[in-house]
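Deliverable D2.4 — example input (structure tokens):
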């Protein structure tokens, strides 16, 4: 008999999400920030986390580089590994969701299929797609990590936006065009949207 046939989850006997949301005085949601490298996802997520904290909300950032250096440090950047990367992240976000916590997920998650996969794991009612819309030329100008330069020179293969596709959302729940705003303005705009979804 396979091991998996002997796994018996006890989710139904644990404190429920509603109990935790009541204690934390917030509605848990998963905000999935997608966009090119250098679009401002991580910076906006960090600013938003701090702003929510100062307003009395409990949020947690899940960031691509942090996750890649920890739970997903055994994965590469093939399409298959990117999908597994997102699967694990979505499962972690779902754990936070069921704990009553607001999660701010900052991941390129380059394809429609990959984001739909994450949405399916989290649940469509709780997965909120936020498109950080920044033109690639601006992302390249920022390039604080030097990644675009390396990708253009061939040192990095399969880099999103250069030799690997990025599929922008057709109908995101929220969109920020960062080339027209400061980071502070972007954070404020997203904060107002997030508050409308998590305030009880």
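Example output (designed residues):
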């Amino acid at each position: 008999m396979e091991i998996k046939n002997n796994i018996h989850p006890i989710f139904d006997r644990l404190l429920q999400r509603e109990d935790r949301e009541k204690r934390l005085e917030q509605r848990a949601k998963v905000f999935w920030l997608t966009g090119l490298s250098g679009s401002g996802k991580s910076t906006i997520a960090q600013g938003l986390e701090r702003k929510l904290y100062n307003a009395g909300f409990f949020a947690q950032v899940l960031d691509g580089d942090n996750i890649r250096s920890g739970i997903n440090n055994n994965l590469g950047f093939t399409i298959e590994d990117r999908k597994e990367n997102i699967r694990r992240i979505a499962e972690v976000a779902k754990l936070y969701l069921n704990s009553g916590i607001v999660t701010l997920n900052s991941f390129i998650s380059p394809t429609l299929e990959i984001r739909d996969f994450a949405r399916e794991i989290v649940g469509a009612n709780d997965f909120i797609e936020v498109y950080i819309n920044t033109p690639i030329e601006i992302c390249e100008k920022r390039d604080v990590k030097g990644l675009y330069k390396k990708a253009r020179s061939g040192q990095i293969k399969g880099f999103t936006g250069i030799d690997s596709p990025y599929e922008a959302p057709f109908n995101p729940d929220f969109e920020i065009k960062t080339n027209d705003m400061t980071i502070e303005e972007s954070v404020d705009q997203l904060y107002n949207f997030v508050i409308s979804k998590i305030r009880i």
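The two ends are 47 Å apart (CA to CA).
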